[in-house]
């Protein structure tokens, strides 16, 4: 706020008593009215569904319908099965690997755009080039790996013709490798954008000061740029981790139904109409995701970073 | 200008590879969609033709591609308009503290991070328990809003964080009513970013899969239709469809970017007349 505006608002605060009371209650009401459509949408399509899932997770299911009840059966089954632990572990594994790769690539790309591109026009142009795929279809982008990774795909024929391998690699498509490749392909943008955003706000003189004080390139990167970019990294991490942990379609499609994560566990139950069991798994998944985010949010104040 | 350090050339190469990684696969299926009639899902090309595109427009053996395309566009527009209006109102409201603003903020974050399958499952359950039929324009529409609204609101928060309040103070001092201030001062200033919110609203809805899966009902949207095709169509017609819908998305992005560019040009021309007045 500039000085004159500050003066203006302080003058208003000093207004006669009745008016200031009116001003305090009116904005609250106006705020409530303006925010009511948002609150309504979130109440009906976010809060109510979560509550319902929580309720249904205690119900029981017959072959054809679900029956209201209060039973721990679904949770007992979930926590009693070794599959659950394996699948959760697998989900964390995907999240960790994809996080590491998207962070490395995202940080490098954002660093290049923010510190090596000198004109703003080029920065914006190259940044847009990075973000455009985000606005196209994920399903199509997954399908587009088929000609690359298939048994007779581009990767195999290239490697064969170079003499690197003697027989086509079978693990390129429909494998964990393909799943992770697709995740990185789909979600690196979610790292690039927030990291680039925070990097653009780093005061350039700070870097010059570090250089004047005798810091080497790697030292500047490690001691100046990296700490100042942390909020962006955290926001990118939240996006990537939640997208990977909540996914069910990428794993199913790219692994050819050979690998599982929690999302697939839920969608399999849904396909079998086992809604109570699906709900119990969903609640545990939600708790896991929220816990992870809660921990990450301790390191960053999102509202300040926007 | 100081000379480029060596790291610049290394990073340029890395960046070029990254772009290749981003766009390469999409370009490949664009090329492969021009396979000859006998061609398969991968290289080599068996002739060059537009056979598979014709196939798309011919009588469909499975599914209803054009119907789902139409539904996706209508739904995208519905979501876009709602996202813009609700985000602007929400953004304005969040400029002042109000009772419950903290809770609402965390709900927005929850909507952003919640696994999409929970929305799909929950909304689906809710409709079935209430004896209502799921339909793309009701349950599908609401489920998609939980994904587009957080993006719209985060953009609005970012916009209002940078908003210079003295413009409003000036308008108020000149006797403008709150509505006049909003209509003639605030909205024109934030208008360019609304183009961004609209772009997010439309494209996120148009491409959404997981949240529509259990909430679209008996009429598919385009991503659902395409996903259905992956299980039973093994010809380049899949690539032809992929190429067309990607081109459509690119056209939409192009239109929005052109609008943003035009807007900023017009602003630059009609900007400040400070110092040009009669002295």
TrEMBL record, chain A:
One of its GO terms (cellular component) is plasma membrane. Pfam families: BPD_transp_1 (PF00528). It is found in: Cell membrane. InterPro entries: MetI-like, MetI-like_sf. It is a multi-pass membrane protein. Its main location: membrane. Residues 88-296 form the ABC transmembrane type-1 domain. Keywords: Cell membrane, Membrane, Transmembrane, Transmembrane helix, Transport. One of its GO terms (biological process) is transmembrane transport. The chain crosses the membrane at residues 32-59, 94-114, 126-149, 169-196, 275-300. PANTHER family: INNER MEMBRANE ABC TRANSPORTER PERMEASE PROTEIN YDCU-RELATED, INNER MEMBRANE ABC TRANSPORTER PERMEASE PROTEIN YDCU-RELATED-RELATED. Belongs to the binding-protein-dependent transport system permease family. CysTW subfamily. This is Putative spermidine/putrescine transport system permease protein.
UniProtKB/TrEMBL annotation, chain B:
The lineage of its organism: Bacteria, Pseudomonadati, Pseudomonadota, Alphaproteobacteria, Rhodobacterales. This is Putative spermidine/putrescine transport system permease protein. It is found in: Cell membrane. The keyword Ligase does not apply. It is a multi-pass membrane protein. Its main location: membrane. The chain crosses the membrane at residues 73-94, 103-127, 147-164, 185-206, 237-262. It comes from the Bacteria. Belongs to the binding-protein-dependent transport system permease family. CysTW subfamily. Pfam families: BPD_transp_1 (PF00528). The keyword Secreted does not apply. InterPro entries: Bact_Polyamine_Transport (IPR051789), MetI-like (IPR000515), MetI-like_sf (IPR035906). Keywords: Cell membrane, Membrane, Transmembrane, Transmembrane helix, Transport. GO terms for biological process: transmembrane transport. Residues 69-256 form the ABC transmembrane type-1 domain. One of its GO terms (cellular component) is plasma membrane.
